[in-house]
Specification:
Strand 1 (55-58) and strand 2 form a beta hairpin. It contains six helices and two strands. With 145 residues, the protein is mainly alpha-helical.
């Protein structure tokens, strides 16, 4: 499994949205400028996120996007699955349990890797990422000469 640019950029855009949409909606243009992601590509990403209900669009002159849920209720897994589909290393439809050897590998390797990946991405919330980002932003070093 490899996370595409769509997944990576989508995660960055969602963190940006969570940080900047505290009191108002955020435009794609502003996210595009801050994250250096093309506005057209963000439109594709946000269409997928909107379909899953992770974000909501607001029309009009004060339009833009807001989160569909609280950052504490959105996991990294929710975001990546909305953009990438299943996060499995080996697609379940490819697994054939024709013999004991295959069953052994499927159960002891592929299903455990898949479960581990899903457990990790589901345990990290958007709120966790925002908190880490804010901590990094506040950890500014002062050098005196």
């Amino acid at each position: 499994m490899k996370i595409s640019t769509k997944g990576r950029y989508g995660l960055k855009a969602m963190i940006d949205l969570a940080i900047n949409a505290v009191n108002d909606s955020v435009t794609l243009k502003s996210i595009s400028e801050r994250q250096k992601i093309s506005e057209g590509y963000l439109e594709q990403i946000f269409a997928s996120l909107r379909k899953k209900g992770l974000i909501q669009g607001k029309k009009g002159s004060q339009g833009g996007y807001i989160l569909g849920y609280s950052p504490s209720d959105i996991s990294v897994g929710d975001i990546l699955r909305a953009l990438e589909g299943d996060l499995n290393v080996v697609d379940a439809s490819e697994l054939k349990n024709e013999d004991r050897m295959e069953q052994c590998v499927n159960y002891n390797v592929w299903s455990k890797i898949n479960d581990s990946i899903n457990d990790i991405v589901d345990s990290i919330t958007l709120e966790d990422l925002v908190m880490k980002y804010n901590k990094l932003a506040n950890d500014v070093f002062m050098y005196y000469i």
